[in-house]
Amino acid sequence: SGSTPNQKAGTVERFSSTGFILAAIGSSVGLGNMWKFPYVTGKHGGAAFFLLFIVCLIVVGLPVLLAEMTIGRGGRGNAAVSFYKLTGKKYWSWLGLVSVITAFLIMSYYSVVAGWTLHYTVESFTGLLFRSGTDFKSKFELFASGYMPLFWQAVVMLVSGWILARGVSGGIEKFNKILIPGFLIILLVLMFRSLTLPGAAAGVEFFLKPDFSKLDAESALIAMGHAFFSLSLGMGCMLTYGSYVEKSQSLGKATLAIGFGDLVYALIAGLIIFPTVFSFGLEPGEGVGLAFMALPVAFSQMPFGAFFGGLFFLLLAIAALTSAISILEVPIAYAIHKWKWSRPRAALYVTVVCFLVGIPSALSVGGVLSSFVIGGKSIFDLVDFVTAYILMPLGGLIVALFTGYAWKRAGEEAGLSGFWYKAWMFLLRVTSPIIIVLIFLYSVGIIKL
Ligand code: PHE
């Protein structure tokens, strides 16, 4: 070992051990935690769903997370080449290439949403957003129908590309070390604000009151799918980050830290969102409607709302940016190796092409391309659907099967032996593949519950 295909100049790119944990948590904590998780939890039985989610995280999420990082570190290469280096079989790198393409496609629309959060951050702090009597639904629609989203998407791409051009320790690690603690502080300030609002208890109750009667097969599949998405699995992210980890670092401990971090952030996000929503008598929803239409109403009515609203959107923007960096790194690492480009050059080219590919997504949410619909879906929804429901499960399945069956020395690289190794292998060989296939069949509508 010692040599790496990731660097042209022959210098080895590595994370420090805390830098790696922070970067991986930055990747896993994203828009999924902030606006999807709280809502599905509230809707599917509160604390009962939360417990179910913890089980899914342990049974499906963590084994695949460990497998991805182990492949990356063992192969010391990007999401395609690592598979090849570990087995000497070419077809595995073709299968790994699926992840690289998935990451590229995800970035093309994730950057759009990340751009919206930046626009809203700026509008909040400058006071433009919270004028009295604003109809936030039309305000968002007006924004999305124009060309401003393109500008903000470009900003996100440029910032991510610039950070990645600086490299692993001077870019990814450095910015996560600044952003994650900042994120934590904002999170705590907002949690304190929301929990002290009048009527906050009703929100906490909606989010966490256990109702085991709401748990069914459907909630189980949703919990599993979300465990997967939330840990950034199935698209080469954790694999690529894993390739920059020192041999001396324990991947088992890293897996636990990342899983725990993801869970805690999801919990706090719910404790911010629901008390705020309920305190102002609003409807709890999810996604775009929740973040850009409902919550601004609450912020516009509370004292210092522009400040707290600004903090909230800044929180979303940081969550999105630290995830976006990890997504864009997947194709950049691939390009550096494949075309022997320097890192800055690879970062520039990949960023520009990804931005161009994302333009149709940016213009299809209420914009000029919104009437262009394929199979009942706008371009944005289509890219989201194909990546999240088809390509990511496929990528996860490839990782589980590769580690479980094809690569014989995974246990050694992961530092597992005895009971833990056997348990890990059982989960990767049997449980994860079955569950991933079930999630896939459910989400494309082949099995109905
Ligand atoms: N895990 C991120 C979230 O919860 C999303 C993500 C998916 C990030 C895939 C990177 C890769 O929002």
Short description:
The chain is mainly alpha-helical and 449 residues long. Helices cover 76% and strands 1% of the residues. A two-stranded antiparallel ribbon has the order 1-2.
Can you lay out the helices and strands and say which pair or pack?
Blueprint: H1 17-28, H2 31-43, H3 47-75, H4 81-87, H5 90-125, H6 136-145, H7 148-165, H8 168-195, H9 200-208, H10 217-230, H11 237-242, H12 251-279, H13 287-301, H14 305-339, H15 343-362, E1 373-374, E2 377-378, H16 379-406, H17 410-414, H18 418-443
Helix pairs in contact: 1-8, 1-12, 1-14, 2-10, 2-12, 3-4, 3-10, 3-12, 3-16, 3-18, 4-5, 5-7, 5-14, 5-15, 5-16, 6-13, 7-8, 7-14, 7-15, 8-12, 8-14, 9-12, 10-18, 12-13, 13-14, 14-15, 16-18
Name its key features:
binds phenylalanine; Hydantoin permease; 18 helices; mainly alpha; 449 residues; two-stranded antiparallel ribbon
In words, what does this structure look like?
The chain is an all-alpha fold and 449 residues long. It has one domain (17-443): Hydantoin permease, CATH 1.10.4160. The chain is built from 18 helices and two strands. It has a two-stranded antiparallel ribbon with strand order 1-2. The longest helix is centred in the first third of the chain and has 36 residues, at 90-125. Bound molecules: phenylalanine.
